[in-house]
Amino acid sequence: MRFLAGKADIQNINDSSLVLFCVEGNPGRNRVLKEIDRNLGGTIRAVYDSNEFAGQLNQTVVIHTSGRAAFGRLILAGLGPKKALKPDCYRQAAGTMARLGAVRRSSSLGIYFGENESAEYAKAIVEGFILGRYCLDDYKSEKKHDDITDTVTFYSPNKAHVVRLEKGIKSGEIIGGGASLTRTLSAMPGNDLTPRKFVSRAQKLAQKYNFQCKALDEKHIRAERMNAYLGVARGSAEPPRFLILEYRGGRAKAKPIVLIGKGITFDSGGISLKPGLDMQEMKSDMTGGAIVLAAIMTATRLGLKQNIIGLVPLAENLPSGNALKPGDIITSRKGKTIEIINTDAEGRLILIDALDYANEFNPQAVIDICTLTGGAMYILGYWGALLMGNNDRLKDLIRSASEASAENVWELPIWDGQRKWIKSDIADLKNSGGKPATSITAAAFLEACIGDWPWAHIDIASVDIEKYGQPYVPKGHTGFGFRLIMELLSNWKKA
Ligand code: BES
Ligand code: MN
Ligand code: ZN
Which of 348, 419, 430, 483 is catalytic? Predict the structure, then answer.
């Protein structure tokens, strides 16, 4: 499928279908609708008059033109009220429209864009289209090939507008590609995405798009004294890999932004074994890592003007005769001794060694993103991720990115009470504080191991899997957090 832009007047568009995005309200006030309706003999007016379509968000209607226009169908896609219009309305409307039978059966699709519709909206439409259509069928032996859409073309009567649209379309495609990659990695089963296989995928992408990629094996991880991380990894026969990605788009001397993603390719809980129900979902305990890989790839493709490092500690958390046990005491890279209370609190163990390793890059800021605590779900339900951190400026930047991406985050505090709650009687820290404020004590644990830099922690455990299906988020692995991180990186200001 290709996304294009071209100069054309309505009369000359001869695609299989033409889409018009419409805000709520009287079609008589829409110049383009009025013009088309003349040729269609009042059909649009009839559709509005019969209340089949009023422009409400995610409302659609398909009208066959039956020879009365050069395009075969007219599709109206509702955006909701004009006063609430924002890019996410277009993203949603595009996701809904992309999944319609009439659109799937259109080999060429035109989208008519009036001159006041910005490139930002074109970008949102492309994202919504790609993400709405997203479907992982790699593991199906029979593929359902009912999508025949070959081109999606944005039309404007104004040449300069077309040039602006082209830029928006290009970045929408790149963002859509990164988000799709995140979803795919997230959904891949543990046997097909082991730490080593994750690395070999990263290496292929690094070669294709030209960013730096290396991976530390067990020996090197040990040489780095990342013993909290190794403690988690040692229960599995699959060896761990510490992935280091590097994109340098900024000035040579500019301090990098470091992104850290949790990369547990399967979390059984270890000796503190999880209950069996829905344990298969723990194959996506590496979504944070997928986001970081996709973000470095996407930053490269967009040519962002920042230096960005991605760190992904990859491991499986399994029980075995060699696994970490409750009561064990291990020492992190930073030199903190940690009493293991619960081997299922493994994410924080691998993350603190990655956080300490971040010091090697003299970062201007560090952001970790991870499916860290089931408790996130009890706080926000499935409708947002948790944000914690030590720097208001960085948190504000993340809130703006959240607004722009329509990926909700909400801040929780870290108080001294919670910091004290994870102190161990026998060691410096314990890896679980049990039930009270689990999401916060997990963050307090990470905070105890950071360096002297602005830090933010985003817990995406609550939003990793979509239960029902939304306009551009099909049921399944969402890739939530990727677009948020890309908005943050694209509009980066020093924290
Ligand atoms: N990977 C899980 C968190 C999780 C749970 C993510 C459900 C997505 C859905 C994490 O490693 C974990 O097991 N956390 C425990 C910590 C507890 C033992 C302190 C949790 O949240 O229950
Ligand atoms: Mn766990
Ligand atoms: Zn986990």
Answer: 348
> Which ligand is in closest contact with the Cα of 269?
2
| Average pLDDT score over residue span 484-492 | 98
Among all bound ligands, the one having the nearest atom to the CA of 436 is 1
What is the 267 CA–ligand 2 centroid distance (Å)? 6
Fold of 188-490: Aminopeptidase (3.40.630)
Catalytic residue among 7, 68, 255, 274: 274
Q: For residue range 324-368, list pLDDT tens digits in order.
A: 999 999 999 999 999 999 999 999 999 999 999 999 999 999 999
Residue 432 alpha carbon, nearest atom of ligand 1: 19
Architecture of domain 2-179: 3-Layer(aba) Sandwich (3.40)
Domain ranges of the chain: 2-179, 188-490
CA of 100 to the centre of ligand 3 (A): 37
Reply yes or no on whether 274 is catalytic.
yes
3-class secondary structure per residue, the chain: CEEEEEECCHHHCCCCEEEEEECCCCHHHCHHHHHHHHHCCCHHHHHHHCCCCCCCCCCEEEEECCCCCCCCEEEEEECCCHHHCCHHHHHHHHHHHHCCHHHHCCCEEEEECCCCCCHHHHHHHHHHHHHHHCCCCCCCCCCCCCCCCCEEEEEECCHHHHHHHHHHHHHHHHHHHHHHHHHHHHHCCCCCCCHHHHHHHHHHHHHHHCCEEEEECHHHHHHCCCHHHHHHHCCCCCCCEEEEEEEECCCCCCCCEEEEECEEEEECCCCCCCCCCCHHHHHHCCHHHHHHHHHHHHHHHHCCCCEEEEEEEEEEECCCCCCCCCCCEEECCCCCEEECCCCCCCHHHHHHHHHHHHHHHCCCEEEEEECCCCCHHHHHCCCCEEEEECCHHHHHHHHHHHHHHCCCEEECCCCHHHHHHCECCCCCEECCCCCCCHHHHHHHHHHCCCCCCCEEEEECCCCCEECCCECCECCEECCCCHHHHHHHHHCCCCC
Q: Which ligand 1 atom is at minimum distance from the Cα of 433?
A: 19
Q: What is the pTM of this model?
A: 0.98
In this structure, the residues whose C-beta lies within 6 A of any atom of ligand 1 are 267, 285, 342, 344-347, 371, 373-375, 432, 438, 461, 464
Using most ligand atoms within 8 A of CB, pick from 283, 338, 344, 386 the residue to mutate for ligand 1: 344
Tens of pLDDT, residues 108-154 = 999 999 877 899 999 999 999 999 999 999 999 998 768 999 999 99
